[in-house]
């Protein structure tokens, strides 16, 4: 294996963030290769055990010889991640432990450390001097070992401050404001903030920049690929990340002759397991998902309306603002007890809104591909 230097990713909790940062890293390599510059091996914190490895092998099989998993760093990140508690409990823990966890991450990366090759499990030792770049997405820690560029859906500090104005958010204002201060420490360490449009704070019509080094970019996710799976019939798709309260609609699907598909058939009873790329098949009428931007942008690009659970006041306030942004733009809706037939009657209007938003992105940036757009700009800064 040819010796290369490394970039390292830094992300928030959940599946989407580690996938999106890896996609961005690969886009940066493509931009540098096009410019005939050195490409980088990629270090990804290994937070979620064998499940993360399996998902990454499925998604990045063509690049598995250049991606490495760092289990120790993953265990450090996990100490500040939001999981099965309320968001208030998670923010209190984050406020209390961020400095210590950031020191631990910095210390780990400042001495020779071991990583595992995604393809085959080979263990190698990395010298700190070989880490030359950090790519972040809503990071919860400061590594402090290389220049860091944040490419994300918004600023955590801004989301937390705005949450203090919302009656639906149950988290105490003092907790939110302390967490905003924690977020600001991390944000101020970034060389630049690439913020996607549309994204979290686009429920506001006239948002103003928080930092001078903010740069607007298209959605920072890979564009949908053509569906190449087995033939599917007309149906609904459920992305399992948080879809409580929608069970009645899934029961109604059968009555209307619609097939139910999901990324997790064990959780969605009566569904058939299919990868989310099925949204590109033209056979999916609706996409049910929690309003993470990976799911939302996939719906936007494929013009399959996204149906969202109502915000739970104990959840991350980002989800409240995501819901609001999606509804303002019109390519999805929050479920508030409507029948499936009524939701389906709104599909044409939501498809039209998706097309309008895509046209706005193209007019503003000349492309829908935010990863390539941001990667080209970061490559020019290195």
Please give a structural write-up.
By secondary structure, the chain is of the alpha/beta class. The chain folds into 2 domains: 185 residues, no CATH class; 131 residues, Rossmann fold, CATH 3.40.50.2000. Helix content is 40%, strand content 17%. The protein has 12 helices and 15 strands. The strands form 2 sheets. Strands 5-4-3-2-1-6-7-8-9 form a 9-stranded mixed beta sheet. Helix 1 links the parallel strand 1 and strand 2. Helix 1 crosses helix 12, helix 4 packs parallel to helix 6 and helix 5 runs antiparallel to helix 6. The longest helix is centred in the first third of the chain and has 23 residues. The chain is globular. It starts with 5 loop residues before the first strand and ends with a helix.
Essential attributes:
382 residues, alpha/beta, Rossmann fold, 2 domains, nine-stranded mixed beta sheet, six-stranded parallel beta sheet, 12 helices, 15 strands, 40% helix, globular
Task: Tell me the layout of helices and strands.
Layout: E1 6-11, H1 15-34, E2 41-45, H2 49-59, E3 67-70, H3 71-78, H4 87-109, E4 113-117, E5 123-126, E6 131-137, E7 148-152, H5 156-163, H6 173-187, E8 192-196, E9 214-217, E10 235-238, H7 247-255, E11 259-262, E12 272-273, E13 284-288, H8 293-302, E14 306-308, H9 317-329, E15 332-334, H10 340-345, H11 347-365, H12 370-381
Parallel strand pairs: 1-2, 1-6, 2-3, 6-7, 7-8, 8-9, 10-11, 10-13, 11-12, 13-14, 14-15
Antiparallel strand pairs: 3-4, 4-5
Helix pairs in contact: 1-12, 3-4, 4-6, 5-6
């Amino acid at each position: 294996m040819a010796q290369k230097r490394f970039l390292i990713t830094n992300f928030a909790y959940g599946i989407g963030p580690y996938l999106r940062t890896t996609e961005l890293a690969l886009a940066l390599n493509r931009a540098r290769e096009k410019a005939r510059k050195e490409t980088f091996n990629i270090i990804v914190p290994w937070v979620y055990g064998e499940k993360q490895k399996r998902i990454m092998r499925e998604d990045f099989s063509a690049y598995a010889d250049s991606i490495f998993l760092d289990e120790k760093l993953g265990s450090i990140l996990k100490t500040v991640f939001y999981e099965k508690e309320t968001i208030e409990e998670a923010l209190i823990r984050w406020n209390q432990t961020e400095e210590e966890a950031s020191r631990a991450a910095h210390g780990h990366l400042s001495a020779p450390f071991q990583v595992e090759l995604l393809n085959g499990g080979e263990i190698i030792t990395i010298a700190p001097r070989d880490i030359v770049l950090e790519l972040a997405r809503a990071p919860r820690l400061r590594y402090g070992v290389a220049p860091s560029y944040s490419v994300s859906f918004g600023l955590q500090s801004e989301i937390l401050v705005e949450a203090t104005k919302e009656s639906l958010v149950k988290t105490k204002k003092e907790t939110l404001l302390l967490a905003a201060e924690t977020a600001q420490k991390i944000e101020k360490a970034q060389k630049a903030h690439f913020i996607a449009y549309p994204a979290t704070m686009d429920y506001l019509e006239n948002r103003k920049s928080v930092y001078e080094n903010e740069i607007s970019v298209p959605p920072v996710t890979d564009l949908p690929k053509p569906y190449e799976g087995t033939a599917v019939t007309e149906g609904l798709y459920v992305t399992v990340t948080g879809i409580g309260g929608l069970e009645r609609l899934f029961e109604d699907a059968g009555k209307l002759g619609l097939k139910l598909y999901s990324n997790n058939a064990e959780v969605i009873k009566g569904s058939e397991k299919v990868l989310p790329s099925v949204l590109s098949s033209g056979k999916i009428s609706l996409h049910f998902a929690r309003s993470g931007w990976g799911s939302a942008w996939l719906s936007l690009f494929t013009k399959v309306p996204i149906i969202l659970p109502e915000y739970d006041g104990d959840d991350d306030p980002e989800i409240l603002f995501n819901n609001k942004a999606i509804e303002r733009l019109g390519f999805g809706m929050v479920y508030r007890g409507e029948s499936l037939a009524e939701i389906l009657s709104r599909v044409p209007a939501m498809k039209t809104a998706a097309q309008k938003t895509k046209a706005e992105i193209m007019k503003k940036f000349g492309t829908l591909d935010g990863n390539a757009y941001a990667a080209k700009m970061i490559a020019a800064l290195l």
